[in-house]
Q: What sequence folds into this?
């Protein structure tokens, strides 16, 4: 009954800030990992 | 002059302490669900005994010490310090009865390590431990360090605003998200549960991808998600995350560790739509700097000393442990003996500093905290500026943490006091460990791990460790979780009572 009324668009609109907030935090962790990986590549390139 | 202790003081503390007993009693019932799922009915009485004891003592306190008087700051701080001792003591009962540790002292060590979100373990046969007891270890980290015992008790039982605010301060979760403390504590729980679900899903996918059966993948995923977000570091396997040899597992762990090390206020602002806060916040900036600096120094040192030579190894060992140490999680992908015997001294030293410095304030991580480090750095900058400018110049400073805050002498003094306390406790802990015959660098590493509530180990922590060292680390874990000041207040309270007696 409840599922029939469920609208993905309405759900996303209602929780937009929350979802983008979580994506921002996960994005921050991804950015840290990418920078850290780049540092490792540079280190191996420079020191080897 | 400090007023003498009265019986009313003890009544207020004891009466308010009853909530910690009740909530621990509820916590100890949760693993029964896991016991039922895995048909481990032999462990059910252990949880029931622990829970019943908690409710009986809570009711006795409620009956004999009933008082309508409000708590003052001193009562709240002493109450919180005692709650963080009592809850682990009760939680250690099922661990001890299930023979998961060699002695009751070890069970107490395991429970304190759990509740404080440290992750150092003296449990025996973790790989063969019953699911319900293993779940309890992880659950303790989630409810203890991930959310906070008193935060949960406030959200469920509620309290008058004044008492609640004071209890928050004592538990190092001085979060001014909302005017209502009960609502604030519910928001903290909501944030924790959100990331718990996300982490469990990601770990489960990683587990299935690595060949685990779905049941094991969900169990391991849930447990690692609880300890990852709580920056606790317990694992369902004795080899910790090394057991999986999986980069997927490690990437999910890194995501959870960093998110767990972020400030609750920041979570609330970002999840509420203030996404730019993540780039402006002083704590995020300092955390990023420390994480990358620690990762860079450790990786360069490991490469230079030929411990690891490939990019992948540097990332999965050097950077991973830098993040694990800095966020005070303690997930480990090398054997403890590797730290002691293979890793160079510089890496061990840098990781030790990272563990003491820790993650964000009002987060699940331990240590001195990034906000304080940022404030101290800003104050150094201000002092240098003041010396360079003419005498008549007025030098002010500010920092951005959710809102622009002036850098007052009171803020700087508070940050310096906590930082100095950590350095003093770290020095004493290192000396005690070294006095047991361990090398200075290993002693520094293990002490900073205990005091910073981290859980990385170079092998000192084990069931065979001397009892005096176990007690020392239990004290350090407890003191570190309470950011030391609460412990000093409790000590002052006891000394005051012993010197002047307790007045009517």
A:
């Amino acid at each position: 009954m409840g599922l029939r009324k469920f609208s993905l668009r309405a759900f996303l609109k209602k929780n937009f800030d929350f979802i983008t907030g979580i994506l921002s935090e996960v994005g921050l962790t991804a950015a840290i990992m990418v920078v850290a990986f780049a540092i490792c590549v540079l280190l191996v390139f420079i020191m080897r | 002059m400090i007023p003498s202790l009265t019986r009313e003081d003890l009544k207020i503390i004891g009466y308010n302490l009853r909530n910690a007993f009740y909530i621990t009693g509820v916590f100890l019932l949760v693993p029964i669900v896991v016991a039922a799922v895995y048909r481990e009915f032999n462990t059910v009485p252990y949880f029931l005994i622990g829970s019943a004891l908690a409710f009986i003592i809570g009711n006795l306190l409620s009956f004999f010490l009933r008082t309508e008087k409000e708590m003052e700051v001193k009562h709240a701080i002493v109450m919180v310090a005692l709650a963080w001792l009592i809850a682990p003591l009760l939680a250690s009962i099922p661990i001890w009865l299930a023979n998961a540790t060699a002695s009751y002292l070890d069970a107490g060590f395991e429970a304190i390590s759990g509740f404080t979100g440290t992750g150092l373990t003296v449990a025996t046969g973790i790989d063969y431990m019953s699911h319900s007891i293993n779940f309890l270890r992880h659950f303790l980290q989630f409810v203890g360090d991930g959310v906070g015992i008193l935060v949960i008790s406030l959200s469920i039982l509620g309290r008058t605003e004044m008492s609640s605010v004071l209890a928050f301060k004592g538990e190092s979760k001085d979060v001014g998200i909302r005017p209502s403390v009960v609502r604030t504590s519910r928001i903290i729980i909501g944030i924790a549960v959100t990331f718990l679900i996300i982490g469990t899903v990601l770990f489960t996918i990683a587990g299935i991808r690595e060949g685990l059966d779905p049941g094991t993948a969900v169990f391991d995923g849930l447990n690692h998600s609880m300890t990852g977000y709580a920056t606790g570091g317990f694992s369902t396997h004795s080899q910790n995350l090394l057991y999986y040899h999986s980069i997927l597992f490690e990437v999910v762990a890194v995501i959870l560790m960093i998110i767990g090390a972020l400030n609750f206020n920041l979570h609330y602002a970002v999840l509420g739509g203030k996404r730019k806060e993540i780039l402006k916040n002083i704590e995020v900036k300092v955390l990023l700097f420390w994480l990358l600096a620690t990762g860079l120094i450790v990786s360069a040192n490991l490469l230079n000393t030929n411990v690891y030579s490939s990019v992948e190894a540097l990332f999965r060992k050097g950077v991973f442990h830098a993040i694990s140490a800095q966020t005070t999680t303690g997930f480990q992908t090398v054997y403890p003996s590797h730290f002691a015997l293979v890793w160079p001294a510089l890496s061990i030293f840098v990781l030790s500093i990272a563990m003491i410095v820790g993650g964000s304030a009002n987060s699940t991580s331990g240590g001195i905290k990034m906000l304080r480090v940022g404030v101290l750095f800003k104050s150094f900058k201000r002092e240098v500026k003041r010396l360079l400018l003419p005498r008549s110049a007025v030098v002010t400073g500010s920092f951005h943490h959710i809102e622009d805050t002036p850098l007052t002498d009171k803020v700087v003094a508070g940050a310096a006091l906590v930082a100095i306390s950590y350095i003093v406790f770290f020095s004493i802990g290192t000396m005690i460990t070294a006095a047991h015959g361990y090398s200075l660098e290993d002693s520094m590493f293990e002490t900073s791990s205990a005091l910073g509530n981290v859980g990385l180990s170079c092998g000192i922590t084990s069931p065979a460790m001397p009892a005096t060292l176990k007690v020392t680390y239990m004290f350090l874990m407890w003191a570190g979780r309470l950011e030391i000041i609460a412990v000093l207040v409790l000590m002052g309270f006891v000394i005051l009572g012993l010197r002047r007696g307790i007045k009517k």
The first helix of chain A runs from residue 8 to 14. The mean pLDDT of chain A is 87.
